[in-house]
Amino acid sequence: MLQLTQVRCFVTVAEELHFGRAAARLNMTQPPLSRQVQLLEHALGVELLERNSRSVRLTAAGAIFLPEARRLLRNAEDAMLMARRAGRGALGQVAIGFTPASSYDFLPRLIHALRATYPDIELTLEEMITRDQLAALASHRIDLAFVRPPFDARDTRARLVRSEPMVAALPHTHPLATRAALTPADMEGQDLIMYSILGGGYFHDLVRRLLVSANIQPRLVHHLTQIHALLSMVRTGVGIALIPESASRLGIENVICRPLAFGDAILAELYMVHRTDDASPVLGSVMAIADQITATDGPGTRPA
Q1: E-strand stretches of 206-267
Q2: What are the phi and psi torsion angles at 219 (to 5°)?
């Protein structure tokens, strides 16, 4: 079996064509250097160098082997560097699950920061509802989940990474679009595009809590799953929708967003969840970047 030390000794002698100079480069004496080359020749079953008292020359086999030997040493060095980077969490793969609404602000910022800090971490992204993410986490299909509460998953750890208020999305021609913020009186009796309890259960419950907390009774029209669909209905003048503040940055044409003057304590929360037994350095690097984003904004503050 080839030894890297033997290959390195051969390459150095082949480059110097002199055992004395090669030994000096390698900080060793000539006898062990000569021995290493002999061991390599024995392992290969061919003579690589022609030696006499006055000169050293490459044999035909040695001339062919030299570029391959150099490539072998470069590959070995690259492999060591990659292993060290992987050990530091700078190289590897992480599969991430996320809910649709988390892709409006937090997830893009996370991806941008990871590309800047760890360009060799490869991310696999999969959009899933919370229940499916937790199942995928348990089956090792994904490594990290960004989910909405409430949830109950064994052998996992979770931490809050984003908490944001809901805002009102209105057609730009709506009479309330001129208001700085909407009060319960403004919302009373309005046509409100609602979330489906099946596909949009988290935001359905959140909006219900907001309405009950302020004793508002709007006219509920339509029950849709995706925030994009709600905003499309708003754009066409069907009614008003309550959306997480991050969704207001989507820039939907002819849609105006206004803060709510009620329900300050009722916030849309996003949690980061991972398996307790996953000690992957690269996963740790991804979560550290997520924590930095949270620390910069504060989980309950609005991103700048």
Answers
A1: 219-224, 241-244, 255-259
A2: -90, 115
Transcribe 130-199 into DSSP letters. HHHHHHHHHTTS-SEEEEPSS---TTEEEEEEEEE-EEEEEETTSGGGG-SSB-HHHHTT-EEEEE-TTT
The CATH label, of 1.10.10.10, 3.30.429.10, 3.50.50.60, 1.10.260.40, for the domain at 4-87 is 1.10.10.10
Tell me which of 81-90, 233-242, 250-259, 266-275 is least confident. 81-90
Thinking of the domain 92-162+268-297, which architecture would CATH place it in? 3-Layer(aba) Sandwich (3.40)
- Please name the residue that has the structure tokens 């999305």: 169
Compute the residue count for the chain. 304
- Whole-angstrom distance, CA of residue 17 vs CA of residue 5: 18
pTM comes to 0.74
70 exposure class (CB count in 10 Å sphere: 0-12, 13-18, 19+): middle
Place of tokens 């690589």: 48
Instruction: Residue 236: name the closest of 193, 199, 204, 200 by CA.
Output: 193
Domain ranges for the chain, please list them: 4-87, 92-162+268-297, 166-259
Cα–Cα dist 50/134, whole Å? 66
CA–CA gap between residue 168 and residue 245 (Å, rounded): 9
Is the distance from CB of 221 to CB of 238 less than 8 angstroms?
A: yes
pLDDT in tens, 19-74: 999 999 999 999 999 999 999 999 999 999 998 878 899 999 999 999 999 999 88
DSSP 2: -
Amino acid at 299: P
* Strand 49-51, strand 56-58: pairing: antiparallel
Q: 166-259 maps to which CATH number?
A: 3.40.190.10
Q: Which residue has the tokens 């596909």?
A: 199
pLDDT digits (tens, 9 = 90+) for 204-215: 999 999 999 999
Residue 148 neighbours by CB distance under 10 Å:
20
Whether 4-87 shares its CATH topology with 166-259 is answered no
